[in-house]
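Why do we bother with a discrete structure alphabet at all? Because it lets us treat a fold like text: something you can write down, compare, and reason about line by line. To make this less abstract, here is a complete entry for Porin. Read it the way you would read a sentence in a foreign language you are learning: slowly, and without expecting to understand everything at once.
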Amino acid sequence: MIRALLLGSAAALATTAALAADLPRREAPPVAFAPVPVFTWTGFYAGLHTGYAFTDNPNIQTRGNDPFTGANVVLGRRAASLKSEVDGFSRLGGGFGYNVQFTPGSGFVAGIAFDATWLDLDKRTGFYGTPNPTIGNASVYTQNLDFLGTVNGKLGYAFDRFFVYGTGGLAFGQVSYGADFYNPGATVLQYTGGGRKIFETGYNYGGGIEYAIPVDSFLNYFSIGRWLGIKSDVTIKAEYIRYDLGSRNVLVNQTAPVPPGSYTSRFSTEGSLIRAGFNYKFSGL
């Protein structure tokens, strides 16, 4: 009897163990990790900048259009070639554009950009010619670049929040030219030309670097997107632009029948611009 009970108990224990083995194991739920957001340069942006502009080797060339004025140039009474260099800080500028990053995080970025900078870069150059016969001839050249605009393509590589790029495309600006030639002693204006504001076009090229400020930085407090419910980032940038708006001939004509003839002065508009500023980059709602 006892033996039968023992055998029955052993069988019951074995059956219970087998059933327990078939039950699912109790394991702790897996730890959920929130993915770290990957920064991308894709999106529309707009911002402001200021800058510093300088011309390094511009020449104003003058020739006489008749034997009398031609002789004055040959004799050095008027400047055949005159360097006119100028530099200065720009006023204010702004721009906008759109970038596309092909692989988030790090990867190639392409984009388009429009920028305009108020330069008010004014050149005024004087020349005092050889004595004629004892007092030199005075010449005054003026040239002003009011603003410079660029419409560019951009191509570069992003290292997460750092973006290094090259840029180039169309350049345009409003330029004025002028030349006033005086008699010996600079008491009478004998020849004058130019003075009109002209819309010039040309090309530009350069490169830059841009950095997106981390979201937890206090500078992102100034992001306008956060107040409008739009995802946005603040970026800071610096870039170098080399521009060339070409050359233009200006007829410098006589102001009275005497002395006779006329001159032609050729002005070139080219230089360099260093721009620094910030952008708001919008990525969506």
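What the structure line is telling us, in plain words: Residues 2-22 form the longest helix (21 residues). The chain has one domain: 38-204+237-284.
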